[in-house]
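Note to self: keep these together.
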Amino acid sequence: GFCSMFRLSMQAAVLIILYAIVIAAALTADAFAPVIPLQKPTSRRHLLPKMAAKKGKKTNQRNSQPRTASGKGFGQNKSPTTVTVDDSLQSAAKVETPCSSPIHADLLTWLKQNPNTFVSPKFSLQPSTLGGYGGFANAPIPKDELLFRIPRECCVTYEDALSDPDCGEAFRLIKEKRVPSWRMILIAGWIAKEYLVAKEYEEAITTEKDGIKHSAYFQSVPWDRGSLGQDHLLFWSDEEVETLLGGSLAYEDALLIRKTVDNAVMLLCGVMVPIVHGVRVGLRDQDLHSTDDDADYTDILERLQQAIRGAFVIALSRSFAEEVECDDESIEVENLLLPLIDILQHSNTPNTILEPYEDYVLVRARRDVESGEELFHQYQEENNDVIPPHKFFTRYGFIPGVKEPIAELLKGRSHLFFDSDDTNS
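Structure:
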């Protein structure tokens, strides 16, 4: 029937990807290439300042030996054997973190199951002044005091995608062939698959969903329009893009991003629909329920298309990037998701600072923080020569310092989206 095209072995799916690679490479530039030159000395969410780490070619794993920084530096510092945490903080951290959101409470519970996780008792999670949720100080925090220690094994990395037993082969091929925007495809594609598999377990009312390592994290991020205040242009209809963005400075960039994600959907569905279908069939009691493969495949295809778009929104608006030094001394940028850390809202004058290491990522107070003050990280330097406001919107889904709905700004032909000549016409 209609969906028989998805009943493929992984080998056949890989052949489809090879064919799609040729088409994608011809049609699409890398919509998600770093917007700041890698050598530019700046602190930003998508570029973690660290010492360079060497990555072995054979194992594709980061080497444990620290490397000399190049320029500002990048990579991972070798993890100290201990990270000093005040005894009173360590004891107090065992109490429940104040949190007004059930989905984030589950995230905190999951993170704290890892013995290497530390969340300061002075941290609370509440609705942000900027929309969605954010982190707050519920007591004075002196400069340099530790706020978080998030183990690397709790983060979402390339290794999760490349070593996945179901679709790792396809992801390795996408990386090897340098499919346009392959970095985002790895992260977004893998979390979309894991999210849908977790959903299958959830709907089947089975505890097997506990086997999805990042399930609690996936429940805490915005998969749909309006979730946690997210209104990224990838959620918009074609009509909204044409009506609101047509003629604006953001229009061409928006079209490129949406086309890239459309290509990614085509690229990934042939691999992932059979995987999710296999989970569904395995969970179904064959003695009690008849199967309708075509209906199943159609339903899964629709869910996957939506999940991949949501996954790209998550990856674009929340992922960090770090440089890794390869054996040939070249530098490669890898994206990763940092649970809890990515809840912090953006400010061009942040009051927190990240310290990435081989085994974990630390967050400290950049300055003295008062009780009740919201905690901020800098996603991206606010510099019109580097990333103007309209491009901030197409990447992150918002414009710093602007609380007015984006649609209203566009309808009013704001100077943030239109050249001065256009705004006066």
